[in-house]
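Tutorial, part two.
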Amino acid sequence: MKWIKRGLFGLFTLCALGLIGFWSFAPRIVDAGENQVNPHAPYVISDAAEALHRDLIIGDWHADSLLWNRSLLERHDYGHVDVPRLQEGNVAIQVFTAVTKSPAGLNYEQNATDARDNITLLAFGQLWPLRTWTSIFERAHYQAERLHEYAAQAPRDLQVVTTMSALDAVLEARSNGDDTVAGLLGIEGAHPLEGDIKNLDRLEAIGYRIIGLQHFFDNELGGSLHGIGNKGLTDFGREVVGEIAKRGMVLDLAHSSQQVAWDVLEITDMPIIVSHTGLHSHCGTKRNFPDALMQKIAATGGVIGMGYWADVTCDDSPKGVAKAIKAAIAAVGEDAVSLGSDYDGTVTTSFDTSELAVLTQAMMDAGISEAQIRKVSGGNMLRVLRARLDP
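Running the prediction step on this input gives:
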């Protein structure tokens, strides 16, 4: 019997060591592997581009950095975003978007609602609290808690803002030489509502202000761009859209089906965003709405957040992203184009947020005017936030 006990003890020990190793190393390996920056020589930035870049108010509608266990208060040599790199890149406003459900393979074409969910495994692998392993709402709650904790630890570096007055205070401080970053909370797909409108109150209470209706799955609100059959808004989806319109929130149609987008346009006149995307006539992938739909969204006074990765730009170099931005300006107007990186969203880019001056350089080289660069970099985002944070 002793040898059996010893064998079981040895097996238990090996399993325990395996789990410890998994929890210690796997999350970083996955993060670094999924959120890459293409190798490149140091970018050359002209004095004129550097001076303009430092004078811009820069805002980014979409980064999934809260999904990963790295501290946002420390500078890292992997991934795309942390507060030190935001400060190096002169980013004033960063939307941190909570991902709560995502399918294996991140298939842009079609995903069944019962496809295996990656975030459950990620929550386990990163030792998130037990409550997040089974509750989609709790995953959103936990990611919001993390951002608030970072802000509490370093209030001169990061402020979580939920009102326009709070955002204006950060911008005023930055105009006086501070480099505080204003962080806003967004939801990538309203799965955390779990079919209950009361959960919108709970999300609002913990700081969420940007609400994306869908992600990669159809949900209780309606169809995903990557779901089954281009479903439209459900009755619950219409109720949620109505509530968002009444509150100090921004509605995001990124990842929604085309029919959901058209349905939303029929029932509301608030400015709407597509937080991270590209222009279909420039890069003809399913991920990008047709131009006619984008133009209708722009007509609400909303904006299109241009992404930095190849699936939406067809060229993720700085020159390629600037070319996509210029095409979007031509298609939907200079007042409707914004930045929406999708940083840390399991995409590969050619520059991280610390290197954003290269995008300013590329926009200048593409012939985009200084006034247009100011609008795209943050001016258009600020206009939408002023309209929605204090409706």
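The first strand starts at residue 58 and ends at 63. In part three we will examine how such features are distributed along the chain.
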